[in-house]
Specification:
This protein has 363 residues and is an alpha/beta fold. The chain is built from 14 helices and ten strands.
């Protein structure tokens, strides 16, 4: 680790590294808080994969789950579903015991009182017209409602899922989110409903990635996606690896079906489990039960992929800076670090590393 010591002689890299280390080990799981949602978004992995069929556990089952996970050493929970804001009492129970990040459609505002430090990722899939068409059959301005619910709320960031043929919408959406007083983290649309056309992930994300880079240049203090992360997700490449099940690091370690993955020599999160809403059973991974991982562009899965490969990034200071900046963005987004510099520190992070040539892969 002599190279690491050399790289950490840089004051900014040392600051970011020490902040991450100060957060302590992260032992994470994901949990569906409910199997019910107040929307039926076209392309939502949860219903496309039939994850709601696991049912929903009782309040007692959740209490037992909390006790079990505390005993197991879990300290971070990604709360999904279903729509977690439909179960605020249960969400509060989790908040009182774990560090959390919650994904919400934003239609029911999660109050500040009792959830003061809760990171809330608000889903948006495009302009109000695209978003409404894909998520509410064009009958409701979901984007407008969520903007009003979280205006000026520092807990909230927009989890913006962009389809390959919708790059021209990015600037408009980002501007609205930032004017609303929130930051933006990008995600990438998978078209699990098979609509094709501009929604087809097989077309590749080159135009989307280039537009995201432009937004980073324009709003470096408000965008939570680094250029390096953008390249890794949209190209499906991390050094000599191609994205897929055999390298995904967030698979449920208690499932027999994942034993082969865990024995193939690739690193994985040894604590991770993806729990269904019955608070008992687990599934293959956060976003899938049986679908091909070729269609997975989920940001949380890719954050983990990068995190667990620090050693691959030690070849140069710029490579290490790409790794460190991306990992810091995850910790900052999920409030695992409490850096008070806000926009200023994010602007510095976006200046780290080097500009890589994109390697566009047909995933």
């Amino acid at each position: 680790m002599s190279r690491l010591k050399e790289y950490l002689s840089d004051p900014l890299l040392r600051l970011l590294y020490e902040e991450i280390r100060s957060a302590g080990p992260v032992r994470s799981v994901s949990l569906d808080l409910t199997h019910v949602c107040n929307l039926r978004c076209k392309g939502c992995y949860y219903f496309e994969e039939g994850m709601d069929r696991a049912g929903e556990g009782s309040d007692l089952a959740l209490e037992n789950w909390i006790h079990q996970e505390l005993e197991r050493g879990t300290n971070f929970v990604t709360v999904v579903g279903g729509e977690p804001s439909l179960q605020l009492t249960r969400l509060k129970k989790l908040y009182d015991h774990f560090r959390l990040s919650v994904a919400s459609n934003g239609l029911i505002r999660i109050p500040k009182e009792g959830f003061e430090n809760l990171p809330i990722g608000i889903s948006i899939w495009g302009t109000k017209y695209t978003d409404s068409k894909l998520r509410a059959n064009g009958r409701r301005d979901l984007f407008g409602e969520a903007l009003r619910n979280y205006a000026g709320d520092e807990r909230a960031f927009w989890y913006y899922t962009v389809a390959p043929g919708h790059a021209e919408e990015i600037e408009t959406v980002v501007e609205q989110c930032i004017r609303n007083g929130n930051r933006v983290l990008f995600n990438y649309y998978s078209d699990l409903s098979g609509f094709g056309g501009g929604l087809d992930y097989r077309k590749g994300f080159q135009d989307v990635a280039e537009e995201i880079d432009r937004m980073i240049d324009r709003y470096p203090g408000r965008v939570l996606t680094t250029r390096y992360f953008n390249r890794v997700v949209t190209s499906g490449r991390l050094y000599d690896m191609n994205w897929g099940y055999d390298v995904c690091t967030n698979v449920s370690v208690n499932l027999a079906q994942n034993q082969f993955r865990m024995s193939n020599g690739q690193p994985y999160n040894p604590h991770f489990r993806a729990y269904n809403a019955d608070f008992a059973s687990t599934r293959r991974c956060c976003t899938g039960t049986s679908r091909s991982c070729d269609s997975c562009f989920d940001s949380w899965e890719h954050f983990s992929w990068i995190m667990l490969h620090m050693k691959k990034h030690l070849g140069s200071q710029d490579e290490f800076a790409n790794w460190l900046g991306t990992v810091f963005m995850f910790y900052f987004t999920t409030r695992l670090v409490k850096n008070s510099d806000g926009d200023a520190i994010l602007e510095k992070v976006h200046r780290l590393g080097v500009n890589h040539e994109y390697e566009w892969a047909s995933k």
